[in-house]
Each structure stands twice: as structure tokens, then as C-alpha cells.
Fold this sequence. Notes:
Blueprint: H1 4-23, H2 32-49, E1 58-63, E2 70-75, E3 80-87, H3 102-105, H4 111-123, E4 127-134, H5 138-142, E5 148-152, E6 155-164
Parallel strand pairs: 3-4
Antiparallel strand pairs: 1-2, 2-3, 4-6, 5-6
Helix pairs in contact: 1-2
Amino acid sequence: MQSAMDYQQLFLNAMGNVLVDYQKGKIRFLCEADLRSHLFFECRRLMEERGFAYPFKLNVEKGVFGKRNKVDLVLGSDEVLVELKMEPDYPGVSKPVVFSTKRESGGYGSVEEDLEKIAEYAKRGKHAHFFMIDEDGRHKRKVSGNWKAIVVKGKRCYYLHEHVEPKG
Length: 168
């Protein structure tokens, strides 16, 4: 039986592996669903490799605190909850894809709202993560956090990973 910490470490390893593949140009993200798909695949691959019990406890768009509140990626028996955002930068994409602030979004979801969500998840006893890739730096300028610069195909991009430990 896997513990919350097993799922926690699994997500961190999967995220790191996906970032490495992204930097090497092995994968490309055109939208949030691409990011979620690659993270899901890598979590699944690591679960197999590490002998996690079947059926694997790994879901996307799962309602955790009621049907309306769907979490982007859920590991374990709802122990690790992940919210994702992706701001791609390729020709023809209408900007912004993602809103930085609640005010900007007008109720359609934002980076700021997802950061509030993970704080709430932690208050409810969950390991909560926010992971975003910002290819053009728009959100790095608007949202404070521990942004990291990476180089992808010769271009500087940014990612933000925030983790909030369970409270109580």
C-alpha cells in the first residue's frame, strides 16, 4: 500500500522528468491538456516502474471536494492534488491563453485562483501543487512566486512550481 509521501515523491519525480524532456525538445506543449497528458503519462510510467498496486490511483479532472470542484491531476486516494496552467508561445496563438489575476479573468479561472485553491486543498489535509509553464514570461511579470528560468530550443521560458504541505 502506497503512502501519501510515495505519491508526493512520484509527482515530484514525474514533474522533473517532464521538464527535462521539454528542455531537450522531446515534447512540446501547445495547451494545458498537453502538459497534463505528459505529466499523467510520466506518473503512470513511474507507477509501473515502482510497483504501485493496481489499479493505479491516478486521475485527471477528478472531483475531490464535490462534483463541481475538479482538480487537474489527482494521485493516490486524493492525497496529492495538482492544478496546472500553460501559457504557450507559438505563432497564431491568441494571447493570453491564461489569465494572471482574478480581476483579469472575470471569473473564468486564473493563476491567482489556482494558487488560492492549492492553499485551500492543504487546509483540507492534502499535498497541493501548482505547476505552470509560461513560455513568454507574461505571468512571471504579473504573479509573484519562485519562477525558474529554463531554455527550450534556444528560448528562455519560465516555470512556477508551488507546493503547499497539508495542514493539521
